[in-house]
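Hi everyone, sorry if this is the wrong subforum. Our group has a chain we'd like a structural model of before ordering constructs, and none of us has done structure prediction before. Sequence below.
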Amino acid sequence: MSRTKCSIGWRWESSVSLGMLFFVATFSLAAHLPSQIGAEAGHGTLEVTSGLGRKLYALPDDQNVIDARRSLAADPKSVERVLRLSKAQAARRQYREAVATSTEGLAFAPKNADLYLERGHRELGLRQFKSAMTDLEQATQLAPEMLDAHYHLGLAHYFLGEFDEAAASFERARTLAKSNDSLIDCSNWLYVSLRREGKEQEAAQALSRITPDTKNTEPHLYFYLRLLHFYQGRLTAEALLPPPPAGPEDLEGELAFDTVSYGLGNWRLYHHNRSDAFGLFRNVVKGEAWNSWGFIGSELELLREEK
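Answer:
Right subforum, don't worry. Here is the predicted structure as tokens:
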């Protein structure tokens, strides 16, 4: 997963016919999602227990982790090698290990913004949002022009329900965007933060930089760009619903599913359709990609609903 992969809000039209389509599609998707029961088999270490009570596991080491660990052992004071190992661990959902690796790097490089960014990124996945915020704020202070630091700081605020602060961070990140991919990603999160804060007119203005000529290069941002087109009224809901993931190993399929489902759920919340929204969120948290922003966002909305 790249640094800026995330989950995003989806616009939903309000006609009765689309509502029926949504209900049928949601019911069908639920039947195809992997069950939580038995999902622990074949996984690595326990990483975190979610607020919903589900145990979330890492994947075992792969060759990238083994090679990165060996490389760091040969030069343990190399920030580059620390970051390589942390990212390799994170790719296997070994987030606690990645945080520990970054912490070891910060012990000898306490002013390195990349290490604070890396640790904060992984703390988000562990649901340690306040710790992540501290690290990401430090990264922005050390490197004010680092887009990813502002971006992930926005996510920390967003997951804490601090939507106004999240929008400010995403706006700062967007001003630093030098590619369409960054523009697409930041515009999405800026939009959804403003919508959650109730600033509908400002959210609409945030879409103005997404023109018909704006194209993505990263494959996962295809869904994000289409979301932005949906917000603009250029696509219909039917065109956006993805197929369910083929199974636990279909990581790209699950990322698309989580992205769309969380986003559609968000859109339903904007329009006060809580029942459909929470049906979507429940479908997302049945999957395996517990480190995706869509999974985390869905989990948090379900927790807020329980309170």
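For your construct planning: Strands lie at 46-49, 55-57. Residues 34 and 247 are 6 Å apart (CA to CA).
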